[in-house]
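Tutorial sheet, problem 5. The two components below are modelled jointly, 232 residues in total.
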Amino acid sequence: NAGVTQTPKFQVLKTGQSMTLQCAQDMNHEYMSWYRQDPGMGLRLIHYSVGAGITDQGEVPNGYNVSRSTTEDFPLRLLSAAPSQTSVYFCASSYSGSPGGGSRQETQYFGPGTRLLVL
Amino acid sequence: KQEVTQIPAALSVPEGENLVLNCSFTDSAIYNLQWFRQDPGKGLTSLLLIQSSQREQTSGRLNASLDKSSGRSTLYIAASQPGDSATYLCAVRPLSSASKIIFGSGTRLSIRP
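Model answer (structure tokens):
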């Protein structure tokens, strides 16, 4: 298994440009999520999905859109990039987004990250 | 609102020492707590997941404990090695919003040879 993959690894955008960060997993995980990581602030949840066709907002959703048309893919769209969106973005997945299934169900697997610089 | 804190932000110890990393959370109503490791420029790797009904979990030289009532967890690393150098993050899954995992900002650990 490739696990969780993210593309691109690094991207530079100008303010106002749009782009899509790609995330894919081949583990048949139901739950997928996007985080951003900023220095000294840990990871903050942007959006998440508990299954194909179902998405919901996290802690910092403004300026980002997501969709989940398949189990495997969960792209993150920046509609109009702003310098405040300069960050490292991580995609994660797990078998289940619901607790109670046990450690194997709930353990999260992370992609390698996308470094985004908005000028 | 649930908040997760990890102190200190950075720690440097000589090789071979046993050490403890701390994690505290403000709301004890959690399903579980997870410890992750992050190497520079890389994603996160799950180390241990402790369910709210458990007191500790062990994996090799790592032992994680959970005291839900006091809002604390510790990650114990025995006989530390230079390869243990990384940032360690803890994260909780709150009862109030089970699909939203909340992370601490991490402790950057450096093991000196």
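Marking note: The radius of gyration of chain B is 14 Å. Full credit if you identified this.
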